Amino acid sequence: MSLDTRVNGGRLLVDCLIEQGADRIFTVPGESFLAVLDALHDSPEVQTVICRQEGGAAFMACADGAMTGRPGICFVTRGPGATNASIGIHVAMQDSQPMLLFIGDVDREMKDREGFQEVDFGRMFGPLAKLVLRIDDPSRIPEYVARAWSVALSGRPGPVVIALPEDMLLEEVSDVSPRPAIHRPAQPPCPDAMGVLMDLLANAASPVAIVGGAGWHAKAREHFTTFAERVGLPVAGAFRRQDAIANSSKVWAGNLGYGPGPKLVERIKQADLVIAVGARLGEATTDGYTLITPEHPGQTLVHVHPDPNELGRVYRPDLAICADMAEFAEAAALWDDDVVPFDAGEEAHLEWLDWSTARPAPYPLDMAACVTVMRAALPDDSIICNGAGNFSGWWHRYWHYNGFPTQLAPTAGAMGYGVPAAVAAALRHPERTVVALAGDGDFLMNGQELATAVQHGCNLLVVLVDNSAYGTIRMHQEREFPTRVSGTTLHNPDFAALAVAYGGWARRVETTDEFATALAEAQGRKGLRLLHLVIDVEQLSAGGATISGLRSKAKP
User: Fold this and answer.
1) Using DSSP, how many helices (H) and how many strands (E) does the chain show?
2) Most-buried pick from 17, 212, 380, 492 (CB within 10 A)?
């Protein structure tokens, strides 16, 4: 941009984002940022993805940030738009994913008068985001964009919210240029700390690693796999971080979270050395801070994380290492001192293989068998996207995540994430197979984004599991109040017909054999494809929970 060219704030903002490397934004348009939309009209470097609800747009931005390692970008309008998008901010924060949410705001002169759709975004998003900013001077747009980009990337990645007064975006400025592109700081680990870690490992009898989370990416994955396989270290994935290393690795031990393998749980409990790399060791990963307790008596905890504020915040680490994930993993892989290999890595992998092998179940449509069929039919690098619900447990247990990234799933447990995330994945990786997994309740929270998929030409397979219930809540309900079904039964539309109405192809599936046939037919097509799997609510979870079984265990 020429220094003597006058541009309005909207044009300057888009130029700043392009300079930082932005190539896609997700938006539901609003009159409060028309100047930005106008600038995007003349910016072929940036694809504008038009979404149908702000929550879906925010989920797409969050997923895009997870895949690229740079901030996913979402634009929404004030008031209703911002409140709808807040769910994406919550997910991006809990999942440690870089994201920028730009909100068109009321004019500067109207601030604090409770103008039309006005919200105090500092107070609203303060507890949810890493940082909340407001740009009142268009000449400072380069400064604020660079700061937001830096904060979203550094330390523990996360979301930054930026409010944009409508009149500020229309105001013209001159002699202002975008700041140069910012890259994530890559702090290497302290060599002395690495020496202590290797000594701890050499003296351990039953070590285990828990990996995946903040700043984890392909390079970290490659180097940590090399290190773990060299020393025979069992590697477990934190909750919904199952692609942290290839599941085909001879040391992959399985995933923690809801419904982990019992032998993996016992291995974690018996470990004398726990090496957590990137993981926060949150509630889901640690089964409510019980599998590994914050004080972890009898266990030595090494916590490696890129954000110093995370180290020691909940857990008492015996050794805390603040470092970039790839830098740490590379240092571990290149460490010269020999460590006598453990047999435990391969033992743990064999245990996981047994746990992730489906056994026949007495259901017309056996969900575990369906996942096995999918594994045989779809490429190893397929990207599996899901929201929250018991339906996801079958893929968490039986799917093998070998490529990277291949799992987009919210650790925050947000329903409605799978379809928007799959749209983002299909746009980011059109060369790969992308699957959106959804339950019936989960799907109807953001199913309208199928329209976005069709409009933007996405190749996308949706596997929709329909048990006419909020199944997870029904499971807990039967445990606590058996036979007293309240608030969890759903009356659903014809999902296959709905997909066709959006412009896709669909099949209703009621048996395992029908699933195999329908999946093969779907693979032969392009565009939006949906398989509507109808199951009985009796088949509650991948862990084997059933309505009748829960009721039989109830106290009289």
Assistant:
1) 21, 20
2) 212
pLDDT (tens digit, 9 = 90+) per residue, 254-265? 999 998 999 999
Given the DSSP bridges, would you call strands 172-173 and 7-8 parallel, antiparallel or unpaired?
A: antiparallel
- Say what the pLDDT of residue 4 is: 54
Taking alpha carbons only, the member of 404, 478, 415, 463 closest to residue 442 is 415
**Which token pair is 132?**
């909340």
Residue 288 CB contacts under 8 Å (≥ 6 apart), including other chains? none
Residues forming CATH 3.40.50.1220 domain(s) in the chain: 191-353
Q: Cα–Cα–Cα angle for 342, 345, 351, nearest 5°?
A: 135
Which position has the higher pLDDT, 384 or 259?
384
Q: What is the pTM of this model?
A: 0.95
Cα 399 off chain centre by = 17
Q: Tokens 């694809």 identify what position?
A: 47
pLDDT at 338 over 80: no
Going from the C-alpha of 208 to that of each of 275, 287, 305, 315, 345, the distances in angstroms are: 6, 17, 17, 17, 9
Q: Which pair of structure tokens corresponds to residue 23?
A: 């190539």
DSSP 469-488: B-HHHHHHHHHHSTT---S-
Q: CA 445 to CA 25: how far, in whole Å? A: 21
Other Cβ atoms within 10 Å of 388 Cβ, number: 21
Strands 319-322 vs 528-534: parallel, antiparallel or unpaired: unpaired
For domain 7-173, which architecture applies? Answer: 3-Layer(aba) Sandwich (3.40)
Token representation of residue 410: 């919210």
Rounded Cα distance, 447 and 438, in Å = 9
Helices (H), 188-279: 191-202, 218-231, 262-270
Q: CATH 3.40.50.970 residue ranges in the chain? A: 7-173, 357-552
Distances (CA, A) of 391 to 262, 439, 465: 20, 6, 7
- Residue pair 193/321 in contact (Cβ under 8 Å)? The answer is yes
Token reading at 18: 């392009």
- Indicate the CATH number of 191-353 among 3.40.30.10, 1.10.1760.20, 1.10.3720.10, 3.40.50.1220: 3.40.50.1220
The CA radius of gyration of the chain, in Å to the nearest whole number, is 24
* Cα 537 to Cα 326: distance, rounded to the nearest angstrom: 44
Print burial letters for 392-420: b (CB count within 10 Å at least 16), e (below 16).
bbbbbbbbbbbbbbbbbbbbbbbbbbbbb
